[in-house]
Write a sequence for this structure.
């Protein structure tokens, strides 16, 4: 996949789910990466005219409840299933995209990514950590290691056949892709590194073409 | 485990070989990472960033904690007595019993916070030892040190502290606080102090934004805050860490008011479990914080909530906590 020049993102409209969490950081990052328009999604009509959706970090239980209460869950599931709407989830966003949640499978979720996640897999806040990731896959090739900030992070404990693992930590996947779905257990939006968001924007641009 | 039964399983408890992916995708990732660093500044400040747009609720039992989680709280504050009861009681208020905090930790999956007395670094050591997610060095408890706050840089657990103005906020951040809340008058159901302090911080920052760099030295001296943090605040146009409202929030409208005043989220203490219908009120406040700019939604969630907690007028207060004279430096 050849990197797309940044200006190719200028015709893209990216929706950021603004129910709870660090959505402002995602919006700032997407703008920095050259996304044409970044809009907040809080109500169903905000889902019209978006080329992609970003689900931020936050508390997955809160976002999950609000997705149901504000009647956003089904429309999002439908857009991903029927229109292959590109979606990107970080941390809580990754939990909400997962097909299954270990031990808490009753938690409502979008459930389109064929992985099993384990919430708070590393323990309480004092076990939150940063690592520098390397990988032989995009967007890591011939590039410096990527700083990955994990905060009360989930772990991806199982991936389905369709899921492509792009990076791991301690042999556990931390960045995965399945078609138009991108998810990571860490927070690229909290760092200065634009690579993961640019990778997503490239996916969106290719989907739109 | 996964829907189709194929694929590859990972177990964080066991060290699996790095390249044994069963993925059918081309070129499986050969990926590795350096040693992980825990409790960095980014992870401490980052957890507060994850709480943004959320409501943190005071709870005294595991049942209340579960109710708060189900109602959409982004974290809970584990306490033996909620502020309204601490006021009624009038005795020395201290850190809660660790066993009580542990039962709350076991009952929910969201972050659990707990309070220590101002300056009581041993209470902080105890809370860190039981794996608390955030410590609130709180004026709601009786101060343990009338001159100093805890040196929060010494801890792996992040801290939240109260403030009444920009100087106080930046002093707490200098001491290592990763998260700031306004000092309201907790336990009163009266939002006036939280509003006053949010506005004061906002006004200080507005003033700072229009200052010339030459003027920052004197401003730093005037408000008693470190110069580097003043520069950072000017550059960002806001506090360098997440800022929540706290103290006296009792209704969805109160919560939305604090959000419209620029706060990143709200703490609700006595306001929920001292009201007629805690579950409904908790859910309503959560929705009000998400939709704080939408009066239609605010109207819907404000309907039929039953009685809010009985409020107290500020001039009826026996003891004011925000401007507590028991603490001399703030």
């Amino acid at each position: 996949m050849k990197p797309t020049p940044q200006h190719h993102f200028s015709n893209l409209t990216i929706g950021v789910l603004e129910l709870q969490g660090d959505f402002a950081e995602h919006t700032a990052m997407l703008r920095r990466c050259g996304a044409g328009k970044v809009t907040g999604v809080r109500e169903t009509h905000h889902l019209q005219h978006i080329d992609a959706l970003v689900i931020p970090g936050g508390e997955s239980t809160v976002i999950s409840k609000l997705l149901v209460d504000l009647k956003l869950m089904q429309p999002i599931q439908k857009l991903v299933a029927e229109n292959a709407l590109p979606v990107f989830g970080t941390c809580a966003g990754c939990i909400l995209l997962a097909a299954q949640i270990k031990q808490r499978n009753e938690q409502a979720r979008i459930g389109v990514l064929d992985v099993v996640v384990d919430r708070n897999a590393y323990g309480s806040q004092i076990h939150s950590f940063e690592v520098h990731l390397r990988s032989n896959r995009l967007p890591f090739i011939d590039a410096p290691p990527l700083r990955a900030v994990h905060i009360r992070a989930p772990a991806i404990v199982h991936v389905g056949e369709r899921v492509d693992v792009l990076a791991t930590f301690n042999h556990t996947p931390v960045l995965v892709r399945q078609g138009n779905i991108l998810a990571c257990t860490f927070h690229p939006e909290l760092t200065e590194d634009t690579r993961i968001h640019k990778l997503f924007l490239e996916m969106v641009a290719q989907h739109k073409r | 485990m996964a829907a189709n039964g194929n694929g590859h399983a990972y177990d964080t408890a066991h060290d699996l070989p790095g390249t044994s992916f069963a993925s059918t995708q081309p070129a499986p990732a050969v990926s590795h990472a350096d040693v992980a660093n825990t409790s960095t500044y980014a992870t401490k400040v980052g957890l507060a960033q994850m709480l943004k747009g959320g409501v943190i609720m005071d709870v005294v039992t595991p049942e209340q904690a579960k109710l708060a989680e189900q109602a959409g709280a982004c974290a809970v504050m584990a306490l033996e007595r909620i502020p309204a009861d601490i006021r009624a009681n009038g005795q020395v208020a201290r850190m809660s019993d660790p066993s009580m905090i542990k039962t709350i930790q076991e009952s929910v999956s969201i972050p659990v916070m707990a309070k220590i007395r101002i300056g009581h670094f041993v209470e902080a050591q105890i809370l860190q030892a039981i794996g608390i997610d955030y410590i609130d060095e709180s004026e709601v408890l009786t101060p343990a040190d009338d001159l100093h706050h805890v040196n929060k840089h010494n801890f792996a657990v992040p801290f939240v502290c109260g403030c009444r103005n920009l100087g106080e906020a930046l002093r707490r951040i200098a001491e290592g606080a990763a998260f700031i809340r306004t000092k309201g008058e907790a336990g009163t159901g009266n939002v006036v102090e939280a509003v006053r302090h949010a506005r004061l911080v906002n006004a200080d920052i507005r003033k700072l934004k229009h200052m010339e760099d030459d003027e920052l030295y004197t401003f730093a001296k005037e408000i008693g805050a470190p110069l580097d943090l003043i520069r950072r605040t000017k550059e960002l146009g806001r506090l360098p860490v997440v800022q929540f409202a706290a103290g006296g929030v009792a209704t969805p409208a109160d919560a939305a008011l604090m959000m419209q005043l620029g706060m990143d989220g709200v703490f609700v203490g006595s306001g929920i479990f001292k009201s007629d219908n805690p579950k409904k009120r908790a859910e309503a406040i959560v929705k009000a914080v998400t939709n704080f700019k939408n009066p239609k939604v605010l109207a819907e969630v404000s309907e039929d909530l039953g009685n809010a907690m009985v409020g107290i007028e500020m001039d009826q207060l026996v003891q004011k906590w925000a401007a507590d004279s028991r603490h001399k430096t703030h």
